[in-house]
Write a structure and sequence with these properties.
Elements: E1 15-21, E2 28-40, H1 43-47, H2 57-70, H3 76-90, E3 94-104, E4 106-110, E5 113-116, E6 121-129, E7 132-146, E8 171-181, H4 189-206, H5 212-226, E9 230-239, E10 242-244, E11 261-264, E12 270-277
Helix pairs in contact: 2-3, 4-5
Bound molecules: uric acid.
Uric acid binds next to α5 and β12.
Active site: 12 (charge relay system), 57 (charge relay system), 241 (charge relay system)
Organism: Jiangella mangrovi
GO molecular function, one term: urate oxidase activity
Length: 295
Amino acid sequence: MAHTLGANQYGKAECRVVRVVRDTPRHEIRDLNVSTSLRGDFAAAHVTGDQTAVLPTDTQKNTAFAYAKLHGVGSPEDYALALGARLLEACPAAETAQVRVEEYGWDRIGDHSFVRRGGSVRTAVVTVGHDGTHVVSGITDLVLLNSTDSEFKGFLKDEFTTLPETDDRVLATSLVARWRHASVDGVDWNASHEAVTATLLRTFAGTYTRALQEMLYAMGSAVLDAQPGLAEIRFSAPNVHHFLVDFSDFQVDGLSNDGEVFVAADRPYGLIEAQVTRDDAPPADDAWLAVPGFC
Ligand SMILES: O=c1[nH]c(=O)c2[nH]c(=O)[nH]c2[nH]1
């Protein structure tokens, strides 16, 4: 039966490009989800299998990361214009190069610390019983990032360990934190929630850590120190890995990556969970019953 190749395009979808500008101690970040598509005369690739005209999607991805450094990300439009022009030039069979960008906004909470704009959700779990009432307040999807002051080294190694040690990495998490009130009498719930959240942010921004584990304990300790009315706090913290993109194999003179361009990976992720409890905390009874997502 006769048939004809119709519309086609190809590219790399959802490159999670994170650009850190760290020329001064006050870092900037731009966080993008970048997709590229080339359209043009790619009939041979489909019909005869001849890939001569095809600029690999892998190359398109590499270019997206390299351009975050070479051109920078002043704005998504400006970056996309530069990347699109480069892809069109690099692939003669292409008639158009489309670059689609989603940018995630971050608010500053320190010189090198940021909280993702607008995503977090306040939670409350109240258990009313004949023998007592418990309130567990919390926050989910609190996305935090430190662009320095984080290391991970000195860890246990075996024959399957390949992770390089690092004394300067991006530390990012989408935090779930829940805290149990020791008493429910006379608590200003809104003020309490605001104060705990502020302590979490301030501690995340102000603490040099050697692991996410150390950060959770620091945040938990700071919250219990500042809020005598709390009995305990529990955390579930995915380690949102930001891998330094390796530019060393690119044939571009002087292109280095000194902690400036990262790929934000979504899966798999480390999942670090911890509880910090005041020594004289009243018993939790069934305050945590059916509260999901904790160790
Ligand atoms: O903060 C971290 N804690 C870990 O336990 C761990 N494991 C790992 O591979 N990276 C990290 N980072």
